[in-house]
Every structure is written in C-alpha cells, then in structure tokens.
Amino acid sequence: xxxxxxxxxxYDLAEKKRMPELESTCGNNCMKNYLTxxxxxWVNVETFISTSDNQIAIAPGSLLKEWKKDGRNHYHxxxxxxxxxxxxxxxxxxxxxxxxxxxxxxxxxxxxKHPYNITMMLEAVEKxxxxxxxxxxxxxxxxxRIIEFPRYxxxxxxxxxxxxxxxxxxxxxxxxxxxxxxVVDAIIAHEMGHQWxxxxxxxxxxxxxxxxxxxxxxxxxxxxxxxxxxxxxxMKNFLKYDMNRYLRGRSSEVEKELPLxxxxxxxxxxxxxxxxxxxxxxxxxxxxxxxxxxxxxxxxYRYKEPPYPTSLDFLKHLEPQVPDSLKYLxxxxxxxxxxxxxxxxxxxxxxxxxxxxxxxNFDAAKLKADTIGNETKVKLNDWVDVGVYADxxxxxxxxxxxxxxxxxxxxxxxxxxSIPVKAAIDPRQIxxxxxxxxxxxxxxxxx
Length: 447
Hints:
This protein is an alpha+beta fold. It contains nine helices and 20 strands.
C-alpha cells in the first residue's frame, strides 16, 4: 500500500487513515493490538521444517528434535510460551556459537566468513538478559538467538526468542578502533529489549502505543550501555544518535508531529525522542524509579488478553514515581512538544586561594511547539545542569550541578579544585535542543 501522502495524491487516492485517537476510556480499539491488528492475540507456534543437507533451519522456540531424511535436514521446534503472531523462519549454511546464561541458550548463527564480532555478540546478549531480568522481570524463552542474513537489507528485528540481524549491521562492522561498547552492543540491547517491550506487553491499536515498544526498547538499550560504559559523559555518543534522529525527523515532518504519548508509529518520535526523554527522566528522578514504573506496568499487562494497554496506562504507573517538584516533566516531555534553547554568553574563572572560581552567564528559554511546528516561548521554571570540563574535547567533567532556572538571563558562580577549560550548559546533552554548539565556551582567566 502506498503510504506517502504526496504519492497517494498523485494517483487520486484517499488520504491514508491515521491511527485512532488516544482514548482515556478504552473502547473497541483496545481489543486489538497495533502489531497484529486483531488477526490474533497470544499464540503457540509449533514448526516442522526441512532444508538442504548443508543448511540449518531455524524457527521460533526450542528445538525438540532434528533428523535426516531423503538427503535433507529436518527440525521440530515449539515455542516455550504464548507469543505474538509474529515470527520468522530462516535457513542457511550457518556456523553456530553458543553460550549459556542462567539456563538460557545464547546462540549466534553466522556465515563462517564473518567471525569477527561473534564473541562480542554473545556477551551483548548476556548483558541485556542480566539487566532486563533484574529490572523488568523474567525472560520466558529458553533461548536467545541472533541469526545473520545477507546485506540485501540493513536492519535487525526481534521475533520471540529470535533476532534476524543483517550482516552489514554488525557481522562485518569493523570495530577495531572502537571502544569496548559500540553499535553492535547497542543494537543487540535494543532488539533484546523487545523481548519485553512488544513481546511481553503490546499496545492497543491507538495513538501512543509504539511508545510502549520502541521508546521502551531503546531506553532499555541505553540503560544497558550506561551500566556497561559506567561513564555518564561517554553516554553522549549514544544519546547523540537518538537526538539527531528526532531532530532530523521533525525537520522533515510530512504528517503532524504529536506529543510522545500520542505518537502514531513515527520512528523519529517513538525511537529518537522517546528514548531521550526516558533517559533524561531516569537522570532526574532516578533509574530505580523509572524502572519500577516500567516493571509495574509490565506486571499488570504481561501476556494479558485484550483489552490491550495504552500510553495512559503506563503514565498511571509513572506518575506516582515522580516527585511533586518534577511533575512538570510529565506534561512537558510526554504530553506536549517541548524544546530548550540555552546560549552561553560568558565564561571565566579566577584563582582564589587554592581553588578556581568560575562564573558563567547564559540565556535560557523554553519553547512549546504545536503539531505543525509553530513555536511559542513560555516561562522557564526548570532544573538545568551546568558544569565545566577539564579538557577542550569534553571528555572529563570536573563539575556538574543541577540548578533551578526561572529567568531568561542567568549568572552562576561556583568553585573547582583544578583548572577548568570549558564551560557547558546541559553538559551531558540530555535535554532536547536543536543547537548545542552555543551551549559551550572555553573559559577565560581573569587576572
């Protein structure tokens, strides 16, 4: 079906229907989920499949039996728990790398010419399983499989317990000059996140539902990276990808931009913006509180028959976790379209005894956008981070403090123990802002 509205108009086709509007009282649209759209709910899959004698065939679930007959390989698979009516079948000349974690078989099926990143992939699956089971709850499959497919396309996708993964997206990615945590880890963590967000709980056919899968899976990936990197400044590299995805997407928006809790399967919003908001939220209220809201929501709706949940159902779990002083974040970040604009005007320091006294002056603004991009400046009453780096490359943060900003022009003074090099507003870039380059400034020494 043609989806681009201009192409549809060219061929005199009616406008494509948008997702049903978010409802506070669930009706018929909650009786089907957005993934299978009413064709099925939770199903059991049992597969008998055969393939050439030089190939391995893979289907959902545990491998119960394999045998040879008439020069072909035969396999019998059966899913370990009811899953979405959403799965894949694959066959190729595979090498198989295996690892066990808490009784779960971690397996990577790959072309023998592409062995470079296999150990890293096994470890990435293990890291994801560890974080997600500790924070969100059990993994209901007995295996987690990554399965290589040729680079006729470049994506990874999560089916129950199995994740097809393009050779060009990780198997032949050159990570020689990369640090330990990289794009392979991040993508695997995202697809593993879907084993909870989409495969254990799935949203209704309604606005906001893809937040419950894509935003949550990418947030989950960011949290695996955060705990693995163990360096909040380095997390800027992962956040930058999602931030740019959102900002690029909204700059070329052909449909209406909607707030996150009403997103209509718009990738730049539910994937890019959603993950940034969730990550920033855990930075403000605490990782444990955000994860408690996610876990509580999951426990209420895990593998539940219709009616399916909506984004409002998640917000009911989130709101009690947010202190009154930060309740504005739910409105600003989830229910409205909010952008920030900080401009560092002056930054200097002077030596006072054995310390360095830093003074920064900056402009601060908050903008609200409507669905077609019109922006209105509103009063800023927000917590904002300020800080200084010890280096011009912004790798070592000497000082960071969250301050209350309620005016357009701000002056702030603080002291550090060693020579500051560069000042920054929102130094870890967790707030959504189109231009960050004017947030930083090299410090001048005042004699």
